[in-house]
Specification:
Elements: H1 2-25, H2 31-63, H3 77-88, H4 96-117, H5 121-156
Helix pairs in contact: 1-2, 1-3, 2-5, 3-4, 4-5
Length: 160
């Protein structure tokens, strides 16, 4: 349960770093709309964070010819704590470079257990974690941009 709370907190914090600057630029947004966007974004970000180890494990299975045996790679509270810190620092004005470095640190933390569970070695596991994180990040960014375009088109309304 603590793990779910940590992942949700990281997701809401990451979403706040993206939604609050938008709310500041558009002062006409209601608090209810901002709260709804924050909750929805937090759930999506939390789900993406939860999928990171699973995606890395799946990539490791694809790389290895005999599939690795074991329960797979999963978050533990000690692995997720730096992720929460990285999400808290996601606010654009607090340092995107530090945010990126913390995500690299979290990825390195995930690479250790993945390397131990598979025969990839640390560098191979780090590659799987990196590709999984980058792929998930690109997918979420594409969805974000699509949602922004759809909501911008709805806000303009039909031209009569």
């Amino acid at each position: 349960m603590a793990l779910v709370v940590l992942l949700l907190f990281a997701g809401v914090s990451e979403a706040a770093g993206r939604i609050l600057p938008l709310a500041v630029r558009r002062p006409g947004m209601s608090r209810t709309r901002v709260a709804a966007l924050l909750c929805a974004g937090g759930l999506v970000e939390g789900a993406v964070f939860a999928l990171w180890p699973l995606t890395a494990w799946t990539l490791a299975e694809l790389v290895l010819s005999p599939a690795p045996t074991g329960a797979g790679l999963a978050w533990t509270p000690d692995l997720v704590a730096p992720l929460v810190l990285a999400a808290v620092l996601a606010f654009p004005l607090l340092g995107p470079l530090l945010h990126l470095l913390l995500f690299v640190g979290v990825g390195a933390g995930l690479a250790g257990p993945l390397a131990a569970a598979t025969e990839l070695g640390w560098w191979g596991a780090a590659g799987c974690v990196t590709v999984a994180g980058a792929g998930l990040g690109v997918a979420v960014e594409a969805v974000r941009r699509l949602v922004v375009r759809i909501s911008a088109a709805e806000a303009r309304g039909p031209i009569s």
